[in-house]
Amino acid sequence: MTLLRNGLTLLLAATLASASPAQDVAPVRAQALVAFASEEGLSRLSRAAAKADFPALANQFEAQSNAAFCGPTTAAIVLNALHERRGDLPRDRSRLRSEDLKHLPGSVDLTLARYTQDNVLDKSPKTRSQVLGEPIDIDGKPVRDVGFQIRQFDALLRAHGAATRLVIVDSSKSEDAVRDELRRNLERGGDYVVVNYTRRAVGQPGGGHISPLGAYDAASDSFLVLDVNPASAGWVWMPTATLVKAMRTFDTVENRGYVVVEPR
After folding, report:
1. pLDDT, tens digit, 9 for 90 and up, residues 142-194
2. Residue 187 in contact with residue 178, Cβ under 8 Å?
3. CB 84 within 8 A of CB 253
4. 168: burial class by Cβ within 10 Å (0-12, 13-18, 19+)?
5. 2: burial class by Cβ within 10 Å (0-12, 13-18, 19+)?
6. Cα 202 off chain centre by
7. What is the pTM of this model?
8. What gap in Å lies between CA 75 and CA 70, rounded to an integer?
9. What's the CA gap between 212 and 60, in Å, rounded?
10. Which of 25, 41, 42, 44 qualifies as a FRET site for 58, CA 20 to 30 Å off?
């Protein structure tokens, strides 16, 4: 209830605030992460021109249930936003215990038609056990590959009917090119972008992480990362240079990057 109430407050602030258009704001390049739940954080959302994805993602947002599930949680949020109210969404019956149902008629189904961070793994390129640390074979060697690499995450989304485009951020991908593509995605609704970066490169504790982007503020040259682990970091505005640097890092077999997600 608190999360819902906070979400409605933030959405109203972004919709009703009467800030000047982004082009009228003197550019002040961001040098550090800025918490979304701050006066400056809300101001950035209010003035941002590229925030078409924010309402749908905020409406579907949920926090990851364990430290390894940033990928499955992000997938659930994005797929629910992408396929909202479609008639064939899966139902997660694993979240109801047998004792929860003993007083209900057999014809009653309490489950909701939506993706969860558990049922997205039904079509995953990795088993639940592998996501949680069971070694997998990489180049003929058993490797404990906790969570999802960006290419594995891309395969997870495609297995659930999304059209995707995977971008690996290596030395051939310039900061300007990344900024331009992410910004353009956030200016239009109906498609989404997910980033994979390492927390250490942005000054946060932890390792590799996956979360969706919600907005871009040109005045501060920063992106709103809708961090799916609010217990660890929370939503933050991240400078473009910091985000690109954190994606341009090596992860097991190749660099990290981002995935553009569209309906098929």
Report:
1. 999 999 999 999 999 999 999 999 999 999 999 999 999 999 999 999 999 99
2. no
3. no
4. middle
5. exposed
6. 16
7. 0.86
8. 9
9. 12
10. 25
Tokens of 90: 């899966």
Length of the chain: 264
151, 254 Cβ separation under 8 angstroms = yes
Residue with tokens 């190749």: 254
Decide: 209 and 70 in contact? Cβ < 8 Å: yes
Residues forming beta bridges with residue 216, ordered by sequence position: 50, 223
Torsion of CA 253, 255, 258, 261, to 10 degrees: -30
How far is 185 from 209, CA to CA, in rounded Å? 20
Beta bridge partners of 209: 197
Rounded-to-integer distance, Cα 85 and Cα 115, Å: 11
Nearest in space to 81 (alpha carbons), one of 98, 63, 61: 61
Closest to 70 in 3D by CA, of 195, 254, 224: 195
Within 10 Å of residue 100's Cβ, how many Cβ atoms?
10
